Amino acid sequence: MFDFVRQHNKLFQFILLILILPSFAFVGMQGYTSMMGGANAGVASVDGRKITQAEWEVAQREQADAIRRQSPGVDPKLLDTPEIKHRALENLVSQRTLQAAASAQHFTPTVEAVQARFWNDPQFAFLRNADGTVNKALLAAQGMTPSGFLERLRQDFALRQVTAPIETSAVAGAANAKLAFDSLLQQREVQLQRFDVKDFAAKFAPSDAELEAFYKDPANAAKFQLPESAQIQYVVLDAEALKKDVSFTEEDLRKYYDENASRYGVPEERRASHILIKADRNAPAAERAKAKAKAEELLGEVRKNPASFAEVAKKNSQDEGSAVNGGDLDFFARGAMVKEFDAAVYAMKQGEISNLVETDFGFHIIQLTGARGGEKKTFDAVRAEVENEVRKQLAQRRYSEAAEQFGNLVYEQADSLQPVADKLKLQVQTATGWRLSACS
Q1: pLDDT of residue 339
Q2: Does CATH place domain 266-372 in 1.20.1070.10?
Q3: Quick one: average pLDDT of 46-66?
Q4: Nearest alpha-carbon partner for 115 in 160, 154, 156, 163
Q5: CA dist., res. 324 & res. 313, Å (int)
Q6: Does the structural domain 2-168 have CATH classification 1.10.4030.10?
Q7: Interhelix angle for 309-316 vs 285-304, to 10°?
Q8: Which of 60, 149, 268, 365 has CB 3.0 to 4.6 Å from 275, enough for a Cys bridge?
Q9: Within 10 Å of residue 56's Cβ, how many Cβ atoms?
Q10: Alpha carbons 369 and 274: distance in angstroms, whole number
């Protein structure tokens, strides 16, 4: 069977074209279902699997449809001859043979491989929408779903895995193999002589007449042709340039400063030390009560003697990272700690010791040891920054308004840029020697 395929490659491709590709011309799911099984008597058998009369008739109709698509004017009588019917049966036998081979070799392409073929194969381009999705409407018009179509594509993919190695394989003859092998073992000796053009150019002195003739020869015209160039005029609507022309008052600057005060403040940071007695929120009540009692005992101790806070933290805090430093957490910004801890710290005064603060980590005793930042910069200190921001916002607003006007003027008065330049106070600029190839 496979020797025949190799020797009659073109014929086999035609058989596949008649057999397989019509299935992608949308015969509909009803025909497909009939082809895969039936109750009629068998007309042939491949690998123990019957080909029924119903399947043969479906194959004949598909074959006739394929021929009509290729030759619309074909005589209908030619499509109902015994030879044509026999060809349809041969095609079915060939298809079943390939299916049996694919099944025996476990050729089952993945969904990804089938989809990749659909997206990349040009023969399915008419089935893809502009965005790359499947044209479901076209499939539905033929009674087929995307999943059904992909299943048929998967079957075709499996068959191609059987035929492709045979179609593309080649066995070299003994004589050709020996010739190729001998050529690899042979050695050649060669000598090279290099002739440099400049060594000979000086020996020739063409006359003026020869030079002129060479110059005027149409065959050489392209060698002396200057590249096309042009002089162009253009205008640029630039938001950055508009910043120079915007106007505002001192009152505008102060208003912006007041409305954006948070932007001109020094971020506040606080420094704290803490003693942690761990207690998981989901721990048994008795365990949590024991941890809380221990924390309350330590709280009483440090409140009696605040100067001992660091020493008590070193001996008792269960936060290993800060305990060695006497519970010191250094400076941190608002929001850097868990919510309960952060709220307590930013509500305290310098040197104050908090009540017990409960978090997911356990019970904390906190001492505020420092604070910095939080001051608002004066208007004079940030005036230049405020002015630049106001200019930028006003320029952006003006740019947005001018952009639409710019486009309309250029479109309406396309023969000159001067009107748009005058209207928007822009400068018409000129560029000379602009090569046209640079614009392509």
Answers
A1: 94
A2: no
A3: 85
A4: 154
A5: 8
A6: yes
A7: 150
A8: 365
A9: 20
A10: 10
